TrEMBL record:
Residues 20-104 form the GST N-terminal domain. PANTHER family: GLUTATHIONE S-TRANSFERASE OMEGA (PTHR43968:SF6), PTHR43968. Gene3D superfamilies: 1.20.1050.10, Glutaredoxin. This is Glutathione S-transferase omega. Its EC number is 1.20.4.2, 1.8.5.1, 2.5.1.18. Belongs to the GST superfamily. Omega family. The keyword Membrane does not apply. Residues 109-236 form the GST C-terminal domain. Pfam families: GST_C_2, GST_N_3. The keyword Cell membrane does not apply.
Amino acid sequence: MPSYPKHLSSGSECPPLKENQLRLYSMQFCPYAQRARLVLAAKNIPYEEININLVDKPEWYLKKNAPGQVPGLEWIDHDSKETKFIPESLIVSDYVDETNSQNRLQPTDPYLKAKHRVLIDRYSGITTAFYKIMREDPKQGVEDLNENLKIYEEALTNTFFGGSKPAMIDYMLWPWFERFQFLGEAGFEFNSDGKLSKLAAWVNAMEANEAVQKIKVPAALLKKFLEGYKQGKPQFDFQ
Ligand code: GSH
């Protein structure tokens, strides 16, 4: 069984922050936190991961980030020694990319970056449908998901959305695709009519990517987590 640091709850102490090390507040099964973890892995940046129990949140985390959501990035500023914190998967991912020049993930061409950004913003159609299948209205959710996937099938003109190698957009879209395999019982089968062939090839290419493999959430644990989530009782620690 793979191990990961226990999710901290109310009543816990915030572990002391080390200088010269990025800290990511995370939850092992959160697709938004997975975005940030993918970017950190793709850029080969070492970081400390602190997991948060999202149904019994530590008081100290709510002080840092009032909505209490993950991911959040924290570090000690080299010059001022001030502690800095930013929330939100897209903002954290962009910050990490902009402040580390190796393997730049955002396109430098502003037009291309804007086109990618539109696809990332419209991705809420997919995430909303995903949660509708999980918890609200599976039938409608499956229809919505198939409809929203068409936009991405049409937009894909190369191996990756970023071209011949994955860019920021590919890592921002990926975590939900890793979870589609668990929607079978609710009636969703990815590419069941064969009309998403470009996306299916993208999934294969992403699965072979080093960062994706490194950050992959073990399927057996993800399945258990999603079963609890579906019933409104998510469990975070299985070891
Ligand atoms: N817009 C946020 C982002 O992109 O980072 C969404 C993050 C989010 O929804 N994270 C979930 C969370 O923290 C876990 S997957 N839920 C706890 C809560 O909303 O109280």
